[in-house]
Amino acid sequence: MSNYDEVEDKLRAHYDELERKHRELDIELIERYNNQTIDDEARRLKTMKLYLKDEMHRINSYLIQKGLE
Fold first, then answer.
1. For residues 69 and 7, what is the distance between their CA atoms, to the nearest angstrom?
2. Is the CB of residue 27 less than 8 Å from the CB of residue 50?
3. Taking each helix axis from N to C terminus, what angle separates 3-34 and 40-65, rounded to the nearest 10 degrees?
4. Which residues, other chains included, contact 3 with Cβ-Cβ below 8 Å and sequence gap of 6+?
5. Which residues have a Cβ under 8 Å from the Cβ of 24 and sit 6 or more positions away?
């Protein structure tokens, strides 16, 4: 396995983990908003969710640019 393949595998695994965390935050935010409890923690979670989405986009763009997606 070349170093390039290892990088691709690591990026894909990292992407999958980010996607899982993003879904978890989405579920937690839905629960908080359904309870109409908008607080600092909900804002923090939304910020984290946005960060994860940005990181996923960055990885996906890299994989597309390298023709791996």
1. 13
2. no
3. 150
4. none
5. none
Tokens (6 digits) for 67? 């023709």
CB-CB neighbours of 25 under 10 Å: 20
To which residue do tokens 């999958």 refer? 16
What is the rounded average pLDDT of the residues 14-38?
Answer: 85
Tokens found for residue 29:
């935010």
For 32, other C-beta atoms within 10 Å of its C-beta total 16
Name the pTM for this structure.
0.60
Contact 18, 59 (CB under 8 A): yes
